[in-house]
Design a protein that fits this description.
heterodimer, A: mainly alpha, 63% helix, B: mainly alpha, 16 helices, 0% strand, membrane (chain A)
Chain lengths: 226, 350
């Protein structure tokens, strides 16, 4: 009886608790947060603008190197940014657009289409990995997927240069090889970064949409004709 | 001695509530570390409390507490206003108060909307059970989607899962995009991407809803989730057929695959629906609609993106040479030959 009454009013018993005067009844009840953030250590207010920009550019460049040489590190995950993905996406879309803008028909891939595929696709992949129980945050995943488009953008540049020279059967074979290689590279790099955050038995389920995503982009790059 | 412990648990609950705010989607890596620190407190709390609280409960509780606080504060504020304005400012104050109240309400409504949209991200957990599969299960279900089961006296088991269907729909979108590009389809007032996504998702969601509605009318034992899963896995056959026939342009190959793979996946769905329906007329209605829609959809997807063949035929018959030269650039040899050899059959199919 007493127990049930106590349960219904959980804090009723507190009034009966007597605390002697000399014990302080105050304290910090927040969770201990560890050492303070790095941002506190140096102030960015009074540094030259050039330093700020250079630091950000260096961070972006650093991530590009990480994509080119994918080893299982969390550097790409720790400080995510969307500058690199934006840059790559716009570059790819402009390169794919270049030829199609002159034509009357709408057969070529349009700027908006590339843009939508890249961002919508990465969002779908990210949601999928979250739903499958991944432990990666939303923008970290977007960052990784965006940076890993880089091999395909490079392949697009190569294709444009090769197509400037001439077009024929051998040239198509060269483009095929380049695009397939960069497709494999993209998939491998993004898997290397994303795989650790997934439950081990479900990696195949997470990799499939990533594969599909880069496959569609690679196919667009391959079928580009000026 | 249980009261101090309970107080400590409550304190832990509160602090973990404020800690859970750090797990925002754009939380950096550091924030995740903080969350790790917070979870220790929650574990302790779990030992103490038998309510079996989890993160969601924490979030909810925190949310409710905050809302209650807000309501209380609001009530207090309005009381103060009434007292002040009524005594000192008279009519003018009443107007100002009214304006402020309206503005307040608008602001509150906007805030509620925004927080609801934001909470949608937290509510992703609601969908998680539907994505709880192993790769082996997905593979088995894909294979089973092409094997009709003849048992129709006892309700067949239909897995309620959305990973496979969703991925199949996206695969179909990609294949359709490929088909549109290679056939040189031009869509006015829209993009190829939007059309492909609209077609695939429209078919999946629309037909599922329609068949579910029919099933509801004829009292069939099937849920919306099962319907989505059944139809989604039923798209595996069409995916294969379209992938092959968009690249190899033989009409007989298409008809063969259409009847074989499309037919098998349709039969599988029809058998599952049959086993869950009672009576002759309901069965005929439900399964006839299902089979008709599914087979026609595949036919539509194939032939809608072969419009190029028709254009080619026109240009061969007429004297309009310019379109043919423009079109013929992308057409493989095979299509040209097949078109030239039997134009009559093509005409009849369009």
């Amino acid at each position: 009886m007493a127990a049930s009454e106590e349960a219904s009013r959980p804090f009723a018993g507190l009034s009966d608790v007597s605390i002697s005067e000399d014990i302080p009844v105050e304290g910090d009840i927040s969770v201990p947060v560890g050492p303070s953030r790095r941002d506190d250590e140096f102030s960015t207010l009074d540094e030259p603008v050039k330093d700020t920009i250079m630091r950000d550019l260096r961070a972006v460049g650093n991530k590009f190197i990480h994509v080119l040489y994918p080893k299982r590190s969390s550097a790409l995950l720790r400080d995510w940014d969307l500058w690199g993905p934006l840059l790559l996406c716009v570059t790819l879309a402009l390169l794919l657009q270049g030829g199609a803008a002159d034509h009357e028909d709408q057969g070529g891939p349009q700027f908006a289409e590339v843009f939508v595929i890249v961002w919508f696709g990465s969002i779908i992949i990210t949601l999928n990995s979250k739903l499958l129980g991944g432990t990666i945050s939303f923008f970290q995943s977007l960052c990784v997927l965006g940076y890993c488009i880089m091999p395909l953008t490079v392949a697009m540049v190569v294709c444009r240069i090769v197509l400037l020279v001439s077009s024929g059967g051998i040239i198509f074979a060269v483009r095929l090889v380049v695009v397939m290689a960069s497709f494999g590279w993209s998939t491998f790099a993004s898997t290397a970064f994303l795989a650790d955050s997934q439950p081990p038995n479900r990696k195949a389920l997470v990799v499939y949409p990533v594969f599909l995503f880069y496959f569609v982009i690679a196919w667009m790059v391959l079928t580009y004709s000026p | 001695d249980s009261t101090p412990r309970r107080a400590a648990a409550a304190a832990g609950k509160m602090s973990s509530g404020s800690g859970s705010r750090n797990t925002e989607p754009w939380g950096s890596f550091d924030d995740n570390l903080i969350q790790g620190g917070g979870s220790a407190v929650i574990d302790m709390e779990n030992m103490d409390d038998t309510s079996g609280s989890s993160f969601e409960d924490m979030g909810e509780m925190h949310q409710r507490m905050k809302e209650e606080e807000e309501v209380a504060a609001e009530a207090a504020a309005t009381e103060d206003d009434v007292a002040d304005d009524g005594e000192f400012l008279g009519m003018k104050g009443l107007k100002g108060q009214l304006g402020r109240q309206v503005a307040d309400e608008v602001w509150q409504a906007g805030k509620r909307q925004a927080s609801k949209a934001f909470n949608l991200y937290a509510n992703i957990d609601i969908l998680r059970p539907y994505f709880d599969v192993e790769p082996v299960q997905v593979r088995n279900r894909l294979i089973e989607s092409l094997i009709p089961v003849r048992m129709i006296n006892f309700p067949q088991k239909i897995a309620g899962e959305l990973y496979g269907p969703l991925m199949l729909v996206f695969t179909l979108v990609a294949i359709l995009l490929h088909g549109m590009k290679t056939s040189g389809t031009v869509i006015r007032e829209g993009t190829l991407m939007g059309t492909a996504i609209g077609t695939c998702f429209g078919y999946w969601l629309g037909v599922s809803a329609f068949i579910y509605f029919l099933a509801y009318l004829v009292n069939a034992q099937i849920t919306m989730l099962q319907m989505l899963s059944l139809l989604g896995y039923g798209l595996f056959g069409p995916c294969i057929v379209l992938l092959v026939t968009y690249n190899i342009h033989f009409h007989f190959l298409f008809y063969g695959l259409w009847l074989l793979l499309g037919g098998l996946s349709t039969l599988r769905m029809v058998a599952a629906l049959l086993s869950r329906t009672v009576g002759q007329t309901p069965r005929l209605l439900l399964c006839g609609t299902m089979a008709l829609l599914h087979m026609l959809f595949l036919l539509y997807l194939h032939f809608n993106y072969h419009t190029i063949v028709e254009g080619l035929l026109d240009s061969l018959e007429g004297h309009n040479m310019a379109p043919m030269q423009r079109v013929a650039r992308d057409v493989p040899e095979v299509t040209l030959n097949a078109t030239a050899r039997n134009p009559g059959m093509l005409l009849s199919t369009h």
